[in-house]
Structure prediction request, 64 residues.
Amino acid sequence: MNPDRFHVTLASAGRPVQHGWWASEATARAKFREWVGEWGLPGARITLVDEETGRVLTTWPETP
Prediction:
C-alpha cells in the first residue's frame, strides 16, 4: 500500500496552504470532508487526487 497515494490539498487565493497524504482512500475522503467543514470558505479550493493514477477524485467547490 502506497502511503502517499491519496493527496488532499487546500488552496486559498490560488496558493497551496495545506497538504496531506494518505494510503487509504476512505481516510483521505474523511479528511477531505473535514477540511471542507473547517476551511470551506469563499476563495478556498480543496482537492483530492489519486496520485497513482493522476485522477482528481473530488473538489470543493465542485467544478461546473
In short: The chain has a mean pLDDT of 94. Residues 6-60 form one domain. The beta strands are 6-12, 15-22, 44-50, 55-60.
